[in-house]
Amino acid sequence: MESVNLGVLAELKELLAEGFEVLVERFILDGQARIDKMQEALSAGSAEVLYAEAHGLKGSSRNVGANLLADYCGQLEAMGHAQNLAGAEPIFSAVVKEFSAVCQALQDFSVA
Length: 112
Known about the structure:
Four Helix Bundle (Hemerythrin (Met), subunit A); 5 helices; 83% helix
């Protein structure tokens, strides 16, 4: 499965023109900040922060067609909402790995 739906990216690139690169930059910077906060939340056992950050990254991931990343974030969001962080670490690791793949795909697409 590809990290990003290329059809969604093509539509965004056409719609936003030069703004597409700004979207990519913001997604990467915001996403990394959210991942950092999720890591801190897991370390501190803060379900509320995990919920909020996973929810935010899930939405922005769906917007750029990164559906697998959004699905992983949705799992963390649900765990945070349920106040049950047992088993969150492997899902968080999947988020980090998939976020990296999505960022690479977005950067490759923005220069194509």
